[in-house]
Amino acid sequence: MQDQTFIRLAFCVTLASSVAISCAPAESDSNNDGGGGATATSSVSSASGSGGATSSGSGGATSSSTTVAGTGGDNSGGSGGAEPTGSGGAGTGGWPEGAIPMGNAPVPSAGCGKATTLTTKEYTISSSGQNRVYYVDMPSNYDMNKPYRLFYTSHWIGSRWQDVEGQDFYFLKPQLEADGEQAIFVAPSSDGATWQEKDHALFDDIMALMNESVCYDTTRVFATGFSFGGMITYSLSTNHQAEIRAAVGIAPANYNIWLPEKTHKPIAWMHTTGMNDTTCPWVSNEAQQRGAKFIALEKAEDNGCTIPTNIPTSNGAYSCYDFQDCDPEHPTRVCTFGGGHTNIDGNPNWIPIESWKFFKQF
Prior knowledge:
By secondary structure, the chain is α/β, with parallel strands linked by helices. The chain has 6 helices and 14 strands.
């Protein structure tokens, strides 16, 4: 494992953590990186600006490629469409699965309108016959009648929820606060170094409890994670499209993680990959379709996008490619840059900036 020092966004508080990062199988990752790729060793004090200009729109073709160099600009969400006729509550409140339009009215969870006993702290839940721990970060001045966004954030290999909380949930929390927004953040811990098949059941169990216990928007549940956290995020995205509105994988891979039978239903998706990442590379094996490139192609196909002959990538400053002609409700984006295996790049760190821009369009 390698020591990393992170400087928290907006708070300038130094967090020292010992991190092992790998896309190797659980059987071989106890004392090594597995992939041998670069890890994030730099320290960054990142502003909470909104990133470069982008437009998500409400349908039609998106721009084919955008290289973002500055920190200004704004974000424009879709205009939505007709609202559901269902009565809300748990689930999607009358929306056909996978057809929730951009900018839809919130659909409250069953916990809305009820006083909650949850506060910001660690909790234990019984899942698959085990006691599992997870952390909940509640909004300050929580309003039991306001359906908040909910972020499900998964840690990297060999770490715990404390490491994700120490990074302000992949630096997303300061991004929201800079926009005057608050959300509920959930960060579970794996059983051992890596995420496994039973962690799908853990997601289901935690979300069932959250649905009854707190007020959140059931159509704005988001998932994200780095490295192995990005891999479980990808794994969940392949069969939880009805529960997860959009997901961002940070340096993910599509192998050495348990995958369910894929439904290939659409889901809004974004991921980031350093083109010099040898741990979770863009292409690990072309013939076997292993690598982040094939996650992008799979999601683009599932989301009805036009598949380009070659996905534009960048081996220098980061560039985000928006697939064209996707389902209006399911934007699909991949951001590449000339770096290694990291969730911190640039000053300010563009990865949480672009992640929040992607999430907040819904």
